[in-house]
Amino acid sequence: MMTYICLLLLAGYPLAFILHRGRLKRVFMRGTEILVQQVTELRLQLDAAREVTTQERDKTSRYFTKISEMERERDDWHQLYTGQAIGHGNAQNLMMGEIEKLARVLAAKGVKYSMPMILQEVRAEYLGDYEMPARASKSLDDHAASARVKLAPPTESA
Fold it and tell me: Is residue 11 part of a domain?
């Protein structure tokens, strides 16, 4: 009996397929259309998401480029400031040294010389804030040394 029922059931599937072939085809076609539509919508959403991601990546890249340019400019300005500060410190040190040297030359010649009050104030401020002259590279030191004017002792006129 069991085999008879199994045979009947097995024979029923092809029979049902033949009888309902048109309806099944319509159901499968409609299901296929729905799936194609959903896949198409998902692809469009994916493309839109990729576009947004690309735009955000480009925007981020532009921000980082601008930040890098600003950092580079900051470093350039800092280097320029440091170079100017070194030059100013060396010039200040050179000026003070030359003023003191001239004062010693005058004292050696018997001329009573007192440094003007403004120079004493500048010297005191300089020594208070900038005890050591600014350090520079060897080439800057060589240039400053070559720029010094060596004073010859004044000749005595009769």
Answer: no
Angle at 34 between CA 28 and CA 36, to 5 degrees: 100
- What is the pTM assigned to this prediction? 0.45
**DSSP alpha helix (H) spans, 109-157:** 117-129, 138-147
> Among 118, 116, 114, which Cα is nearest to 106's?
114
Residue 153, φ and ψ in degrees, nearest 5? -60, 140
State pLDDT tens for residues 33-55: 888 898 899 999 999 999 999 99
> Which domain, by its residues, includes 141?
21-146
- For residue 101, is it within any domain? yes
How many domains does the structure of the chain reveal? 1
Q: How far apart are CA 111 and CA 76, in angstroms?
A: 49
4 located within any domain: no
Residue in the structure block whose two tokens are 């959403």: 45
Q: Are 113 and 86 spatial neighbours (Cβ–Cβ below 8 Å)? A: no
What string of DSSP letters covers 20-72? Answer: THHHHHHHHHHHHHHHHHHHHHHHHHHHHHHHHHHHHHHHHHHHHHHHHHHHH
Highest mean predicted confidence (pLDDT) among 9-18, 57-66, 93-102: 57-66
Give the containing element (helix H, strand E) for 92. helix 21-108
